[in-house]
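Progress note, sequence design subtask.
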């Protein structure tokens, strides 16, 4: 039996040391996507069975439709490590070096996105609400993005980061009371 040491792959060799921070709300969103897809499948199968029209082919079509809905509803898992931000979808994983950002810009459309680009040409699109809802992700991203700005790498995006920081700050200072929460009267 031959012994050897494992040589890390290109992704593993580039991984910076330090803890990885994940989107804390992703598991709940995944459960919601599964639940909605399962509910749709159950309703379609139930209606077809109740009408006496359920066949194997129709069952497969309804199952395919439910799987497609799950794929559409499942958000990417966003994670951050020192110097990196990753977005892992069902079939893809994109990583950008946040300590070497050259561009941060807003993209409007059906859903607003923040597009990050590093000096290696890597690109990641992130839902800005993920950063707003996750203070640990925001702090890690903000620290690295400020470093890129201070080093003169970030040529386009200081305004976008400031706008996002405003959204994070506005959420952190929100004094509204959520349902079920009580606050002492001062």
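Output:
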């Amino acid at each position: 039996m031959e012994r050897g040491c494992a040589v890390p792959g290109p992704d593993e060799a580039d991984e910076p040391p330090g803890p990885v921070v994940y989107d804390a709300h992703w598991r709940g969103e995944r459960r919601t996507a599964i639940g909605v897809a399962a509910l749709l499948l159950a309703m379609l199968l139930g209606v077809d069975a109740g009408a006496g029209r359920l066949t194997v082919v129709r069952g497969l079509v309804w199952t395919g439709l439910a799987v497609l809905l799950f794929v559409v509803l499942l958000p990417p898992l966003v994670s951050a490590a020192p110097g990196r931000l990753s977005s892992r979808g069902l079939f893809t994983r994109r990583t950008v070096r946040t300590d070497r950002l050259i561009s941060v810009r807003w993209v409007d459309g059906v859903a607003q996105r923040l597009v990050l680009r590093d000096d290696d040409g890597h690109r990641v699109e992130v839902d800005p609400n993920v950063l707003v809802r996750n203070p640990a992700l925001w702090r890690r991203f903000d620290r690295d993005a400020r470093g890129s700005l201070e080093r003169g790498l970030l040529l386009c995006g200081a305004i976008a980061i400031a706008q996002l920081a405003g959204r994070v700050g506005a959420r952190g200072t929100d004094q509204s009371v959520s349902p079920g929460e009580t606050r002492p009267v001062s």
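The mean pLDDT is 85. Work on this subtask will continue into the next period as scheduled.
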